[in-house]
Specification:
two-stranded antiparallel ribbon, 12 helices, 12 strands
């Protein structure tokens, strides 16, 4: 039940020394402000990193050939080799439960053109299976299909930046022919999104062609630039990654089966796991720093309340002599501590949220997507408010217990 006289008395006590009260409350304010700001910023970074990986299946390994480091099969060390089409066929036969995604890339120096418009881009040879490891949000049309591969059709799927520069103002690209290195391709689809994970090229600035069409058109033989090996949800790519690489090396007579450096690889599952563990550590550090600072503020309030009790010894003694119960004295001291803590902490909470909102507006557009939607969720906010109430009560408990131990006759004699 709201006791108006109690809060009026508390306000008078706080107002007697505004500077001391303000400095006391600042410790709690700053502790919660730092906690909310740092936690929100950490969440913003984590959201940004997770968004980078959202367009790629994390259960994927990327393989690229590298110069050999061991002489083998009559070839000296530092010999260059490459994947080929037969590797893809053999891998699909050996590992039918994996997604074997071959890819060839070629930077188009002359770019892609349509009418009088042009844009820089990469030409990328793809198979339909690509969509099992790279999630492309088709905004219109379709992706490359098996018939495109079999018939070596001159069709293409364009990325968001290519579409924006060749077909501005919402112009429909479907059915239009763009020129890429002197060859015309019909646009059958366009995908959107804002992917930042580069798998050998900038996905936003790419023109994707049927794999067979690109090999034939640009006389690339049967070379394959890179392989993406994806695993379904019930299998971990880490369990088969080494086996797959050994199988590939065993197929090439110019590569030693023991030459681990001949294949460069990166495991997206491991990479994402490392990033997740890093953010767990960052979150732990943020909470330790924030709660430590908040604890220091609460201890400051407790100490100040002890000083206040000392200064108000006579007042407390007179109240006790007039019939005030120990419970009423305890309630007043604890309520005063809780009030200071909650008001100061709430202001820190609100300012921290506002700072995070401002950072979100400023950095989300200028950090290349690495900082996204900073802030805290409702559960964390409610937990912070609960911590404030409990902290305030604990801060006032010791001074309150000291206050009720004062004997009325001794308090009246206090000068």
């Amino acid at each position: 039940m709201f006791d108006r006289e109690l809060y009026k008395e508390i306000w008078q006590a706080i107002s007697k020394n505004k500077t001391r009260s303000t400095l006391t409350a600042f410790g709690v304010f700053w502790g919660l402000f730092m906690l909310i700001t740092l936690a929100g910023a950490g969440n913003g970074l984590q959201n940004g990193i997770e968004a980078q990986f959202s367009s790629v299946a994390k259960n994927t390994s990327i393989l690229l050939t590298n110069n050999t480091t061991i002489p083998y099969g009559g070839f000296k060390r530092n010999h260059w080799w490459s994947f080929n089409n037969s590797d893809v066929v053999a891998l699909n036969k050996q590992y039918p439960d994996l997604y074997i995604v071959p890819r060839i890339t070629r930077w188009s120096g002359s770019g892609a053109t349509y009418n009088l418009r042009s844009t820089e881009c990469s030409a990328v040879g793809e198979y339909p299976v690509t969509t099992n490891v790279e999630y492309l949000k088709m905004e219109c049309g379709r992706y490359i299909n098996d018939i495109d591969i079999l018939q070596r059709r001159k069709v293409c799927v364009i990325g968001p930046k290519v579409r924006e520069e060749l077909f501005p103002n919402g112009e429909d690209p479907l059915g239009k022919y763009i020129c890429l290195s002197g060859v015309y391709y019909k646009v059958v689809g366009a995908y959107g999104g804002d992917s930042k994970i580069s798998l050998g090229f900038d996905p936003d600035q790419a023109v994707r062609l049927p794999f067979s069409t690109m090999q034939q058109t640009y006389n690339m033989g049967d070379n394959v630039s890179m392989l993406l090996i994806g695993a379904p949800a019930d299998k971990n790519i880490t369990d088969v990654e080494e086996e797959v690489m050994r199988f590939i090396r065993s197929r090439h007579k110019d590569v030693s089966p023991d030459d681990n450096e001949a294949l460069w690889h990166t495991n997206l599952s491991k990479t994402f796991g490392q990033i997740t563990n890093l953010f767990l550590g960052v979150d732990l550090l943020i909470w330790l720093v924030g709660l430590g600072t908040l604890l220091a503020g609460v201890i400051g309030i407790s100490n100040i309340m002890l000083v206040i009790v000392k200064e108000r010894t006579q007042e407390i003694g007179i109240k006790r002599a007039l019939g005030a119960t120990p419970a009423s004295v305890i309630r007043q001291i604890i309520t005063e501590a809780v009030l200071i803590t909650v008001v100061a902490g709430y202001l820190g909470l609100v300012l921290g949220v506002l700072i995070n909102e401002g950072l979100g507006v400023v950095l989300s557009s200028s950090s290349d997507g690495l900082f996204l939607n900073p802030g805290i969720n409702l559960g964390v906010g409610l937990a912070c408010l609960a911590i404030l109430v409990v902290s305030g009560a604990l801060a006032g408990l010791l001074p309150a217990m000291r206050a009720v131990k004062i004997k009325p006759i001794d308090a009246i004699r206090e000068e």
